[in-house]
User: What shape does this take?
Amino acid sequence: MDRLLENLKITVHGQLYVKDPESSDLGRRIVQQSITLIHDLGFENFTFKKLGALIGSNESSVYRYFENKHKLLLYLTNWYWGWMEYRLVFATAALQDPTYRLEQALSIVTQVVKEDSNFSHINEVILSQIVISEYSKSYLTKEVDTENKEGYFYIYKQLVVRLREMISAVNPKYPHAASLASTVLEGALHQHFLKDHFKSITDCGDKVTPTQFFTQLVFATLKA
Amino acid sequence: MDRLLENLKITVHGQLYVKDPESSDLGRRIVQQSITLIHDLGFENFTFKKLGALIGSNESSVYRYFENKHKLLLYLTNWYWGWMEYRLVFATAALQDPTYRLEQALSIVTQVVKEDSNFSHINEVILSQIVISEYSKSYLTKEVDTENKEGYFYIYKQLVVRLREMISAVNPKYPHAASLASTVLEGALHQHFLKDHFKSITDCGDKVTPTQFFTQLVFATLKA
DNA sequence: TATTATCGATAGTATTACTATTAATTTTGG
DNA sequence: CCAAAATTAATAGTAATACTATCGATAATA
Assistant: This one.
């Protein structure tokens, strides 16, 4: 896997940046350090001024790459879901048996990343933590509908569609494959959040993983 | 139901307000109109200054009731979940059969409110819309853990616990009752959001309701 | 009637979320 | 290799936000 990833570049919607951060060293540092800083401060307390200071540069330099912090968050989460999709396709493409395929897919999609794949300046471990606690803020806004039309959520929706198709392949008669797929993706983030902050309302923790919980849930739902 | 609700007062954690908004006309107007305004502008664009203008009063007057808009959101969502809990307990208390009880519970908890019960100045229809698009912002913060210790999420967690117990009553051997309960509560909000903004990744809409989807899912999961 | 609480109005501060300008530096194209 | 173009850091400035503090006027209450 690592070898293959070396040649991978995740493409993110062009309207999410003013200037492609992949095109310069400063751009890459902006992306790289924004992940650290959002993780440390939380999205609300994160500002371009603080980011500028962290990368030993200037607020205005950051604005040359990203319009505002909301677009930056969209950029980061798009990258994350693009990367997730790549891993999903890669891991399931060769598999013939629908059940086994879905099992593998669920495993990838419900796990948090524990190791940085090292093929880019982006730390996927920290990024996945950001996605858990910040992703929903990227669409729970008054601008969702326009931004959705612009295609800012395309990658995420595509991922849900892929999962939906794998669900339907296991049981073509199951009528709620899309809802089940979206519930799994969103629910997995939620369970990860709960195990870190609201332990009393989740079973996920040291013994049980979100993967186990959702695997049982999905296959039971499809069997009925 | 309406009759009974007339005498109901939902109690919200005392630290969520500076002065109890139920104690004055101005306070009630603040709460009432904040629901309208948050719904209209979205939480990010909502300010106390705008709220003051809307109620024909002053920014500083709002601050006399709520420390900041985050606390106000916590107040509103706490009220909502408290009210939801009341409806849940009321509707299921008399029911003996665990399966039927869980069915009723799921129905209450996964539906959005369509009618204002008129027993208070709070419009529950609009409030439930706010909960769908803003609730997660109340806990996806850097301050969750301290605020959780203060008890700001107690009512919500209690609701999950009640649902968990009803799930366990149907199948005591099912090992993930808490995760299933929290997934249903959070997932229902999510499906409602999707049907309004990301139709392509949900089956919920005119024909299928989140209630149907989750009812099938829960009972199938418990049967396996 | 005196006291207290409440409210609206005004003023002021620090921070945020930008935009604009300029000068220095780096890149690159002929 | 030099001139032109692009990039960046630094500074300044604006409007809005998120508050805090103060001060009369009025209403409630004892």
Observations:
- The two ends of chain B are 36 Å apart (CA to CA).
- Chain B has eleven helices and no strands.
- The CA atoms of residues 117 and 207 of chain B lie 26 Å apart.
